[in-house]
Amino acid sequence: MTDQLLFQDQADISDLTAYLTRAKKLDSEGAVKLRSFGEVLAVYVSPIFSGSLIGDGPTVLGLRTLKLATPAELDGTFEISAVLERLANLSSGALGLSVPPSQVRVAWSGVIPPRQGWEEIGSLEQQQLTGWAKEGIAEVTEALPESVGSSIAAKVRLQIWGRAVDVELGLPGAAAFAMAGLGFMLPDERIRVFGANNWLRLSSSHGHVLSKRSAAL
After folding, report:
1. Interatomic CA distance for residues 5 and 65, integer angstroms
2. Phi, psi of 20 (to 5 degrees)
3. Closest CA to 30 of 7, 54, 4, 62
4. Over the stretch 45-76, which tens digit does the pLDDT of each residue have?
């Protein structure tokens, strides 16, 4: 397995740093899955996920891809903070990122969306997705007093974010939250929606959010 990733230019380093910084704000103890079998690096995060693969509520994946300068073979999950630390410690102009020596185990890392069979099924306005995200945040804040236990809080969040905000598509609110929180949308941008089996993918020029369809209302 590759222990160093070589990027094409400094802009890629900056993009990866910004993306992981946003992901860490959404989950301070979050993890990132780095996957590459060639010159394309897929960088997965999960701002909202159920506690187990069969748990209630949604597991939503954020995905950003970057072109590497040289082919790499890597499939590992690491603490976001560990990767950010290595990015911050790169010397000026350096393009080689050392992979953290220790991996972490998280439930969502075993969730594998389809690689093929995606068909475009619609589009959504950036304003609509941002509105759904804000409404969900407000509902979570109102539903959770400061005294509530962490396990109850997690269950409430998953119930709220698991509800479909677009019934026709079966789009969970968590997907709108991830698109907004990860910075994948520009003002007035139209976001393309793709479907494959029971999966949905929101795609913009800045990244993708993948989730299972939701039947919850």
Report:
1. 13
2. -70, -30
3. 62
4. 999 988 644 445 789 999 999 999 999 999 99
pLDDT tens figures, 135-169: 999 998 888 766 555 667 778 888 899 999 999 99
Give the Cα separation of 140 and 214 in Å (integer). 18
CA distance 142 to 124: 27
* Cβ-based burial of 171 (10 A; exposed 0-12, middle 13-18, buried ≥19): buried
The superfamily in CATH containing domain 4-110 is DNA Polymerase III, subunit A, domain 2 (3.10.150.10)
Distance CA 33, CA 108 (A): 10
Domain definitions of the chain by residue range: 4-110, 119-212
**In the beta sheet, which residues pair with residue 44?**
33, 63
pLDDT of residue 148: 54
The rounded distance, in Å, linking the Cα atoms of 204 and 186 is 9
